[in-house]
User: Fold this.
Amino acid sequence: MQRRALLAGIPSATGISLAGCLGREQADVELLETSASRLALDLASVTEIAERWALADEHEASGTDEEITIRPEPDEDPIVDVAATRSHERAVRTFVDEATEEELVSGVAVYDSIDDARDEWDDELRDLSASFVAFEADVGTEALGLGSAAPFVLFRQAEAIGFVRHRDPVAAAEAPEDDDPTIDIEEDDEHEGPSGGDADLVIEYASHKHEGWG
Assistant:
């Protein structure tokens, strides 16, 4: 069953900022001028909220060929698979709760300029809104909060684009099977977490780390 919502049709309901919105140019006047590794969530910032997390994996890369790939399981088809088309530096860290097997992933790509980051957002990332149900995510200059089997937030400020994703395997196993990976979220819901993850938790961690940007 198709349950998709085009983000372009619901910006006033979600509060999600879109490319071209007022205030974007003013917010992007200054470069962050720092590394992707510093902008991504690290163990210290994650454990400030909850001590249950342990660092499971991290890697850094640079160039134009690496894809932004988020998978519900290592061997399953990706939820997000977007080819980066502009030069960037990238850092990704994965944290796990060994008791619950929950997973929290944080990634940041830093581009050569603000214009490159804006173009990457407009040309590649906004297309994701056609395949997922959106939820409000007030992080950065503009953000996409996307419901799926593992909800995630993508956000941009200046020359950097970040994402945070959460997956709860217990919740995913208990959720009813559905051929459609998108999740319905009513406008008056308090971000009831899409099956398989907690949207509120994603926003909390994304906002927490973003406070240190700049």
Notes: The first strand starts at residue 54 and ends at 63. The longest helix spans residues 114-125. The radius of gyration is 16 Å. The helical segments are 11-14, 24-27, 36-39, 43-49, 114-125, 169-174, 199-210.
